[in-house]
Write a structure and sequence with these properties.
By secondary structure, the protein is of the alpha+beta class. The chain has helices spanning about 15-25, 65-75, and strands at about 5, 10-15, 30, 40-45, 50, 55-60, 60-65. The strands form 3 sheets. It has a 3-stranded antiparallel sheet. It is globular, with a radius of gyration of 12 Å. The termini are far apart. Bound molecules: zinc ion (ZN). The site of zinc ion (ZN) has 8 residues, from helix 2.
Length: about 80
């Protein structure tokens, strides 16, 4: 039976979440104050929240919200 975890307000299946976090940890992230792409918004690769013109983290074509960056990628052990 699948376990769901609350991540930044979204219910995400545990195994799927762990795979997304592992992927996110393999990237180098750059902090940005807002997106500079032509789309009106992008989605965090971990929790899928919509990211528009706000602080976020970017790596090539992938985006990460500040919540997921601080909780999963740059978490203080
Ligand atoms: Zn996120």
């Amino acid at each position: 039976m699948a376990e769901y975890v609350d991540v930044n307000g979204a219910q995400i299946e545990q195994g799927f979440l762990e795979a997304n976090i592992a992927e996110a940890r393999s990237y180098d992230w750059v902090r940005t104050d807002g997106m500079d792409v032509t789309d009106d918004h992008v989605h965090c690769i971990v929790c899928f929240v919509a990211i528009a013109r706000q602080e976020a983290y970017r790596s090539e074509s992938a985006w990460l919200c500040t919540y997921c960056y601080s909780h999963f990628v740059n978490a203080k052990a």
